[in-house]
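Objective 1b. Sequence-to-structure analysis of 2-nitropropane dioxygenase.
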Amino acid sequence: MLDTWLTRELGISVPLLGAPMGGRAGGRLAGEVTRAGGLGLIGAARYNTAEWIEGEVRTAREIGGGAVGFGLMTWALADDDSLLTAVLEHRPQLVTLSFGDPAPYIERVHEAGAVVLSQINTVDDLRVVEAAGVDAVIAQGHEAGGHTGRIGTLPLLQEVLESTSLPVLAAGGIATGRGLAAVLAAGGQGALVGTALLASPETVGPDYARGRLVEAGSADTVYTDVFDKARHQPWPARWGGRALRNAFTEEWHGRGADEDTLAAAYTGDDPDIGVVYAGEAAGLVRSERPAGEVIRGIAEQAETLLSRFR
């Protein structure tokens, strides 16, 4: 039994959260992570509707037995926070408010009975979310898939652990029990995993994404903003996105092309052009495996490794 602040606070048996990957983590994936003993998070993106959220929550709870969490992009709430309102109507157990200052929203989330976590990429980010009143933080390293910062997971995790009394989780490059064991041995309270789940059949999105991830190695990713620009996604400049390399990144990454040029060249239906956000743990994903099997395998290996030191 891997007993940590995270398992005690949420009443779960495995100190793992399924990452709220926008466009990939819906109710089915979240439910299977929860059924396996962790807590699955649904990625609530700017384009999602209240009706979509209701349906995904229903699916997650039917599979996972009731508990569900959500992840939101804090910067996107500044102009319209109706997405947060829609999420809180379903009384989630946990909400992550990441990529921006969560202070305007913390009280509402706590009033809805949810635990609040924020992913952070620097110690400066830590100070912002501490002041806002989050319950715990997730040190998200540069290895992570999707949008992330520029400091590696291990240096960032150590620095954050040395800098706060809040519970600390880790994200970025954690795809096996060895990674989870390392986080727990360092003093972390759990991990958020995304890339490890991306080849699972429960993910949302194009079928080609799973196959491309299985074929990829850990050196086959690029940290870039070309996919955001091509799809007119207004992400703040400080957060690039880690994705699998493809013909589109080979052609356009680093060239400084404008959004209209990139948009004209982009199509998400083409496996050689469409974005597959994934982290440097891609080389550890060698087959399409059910999400529950992945979560249980990580937990079992971590427990075996850590038991050697008890």
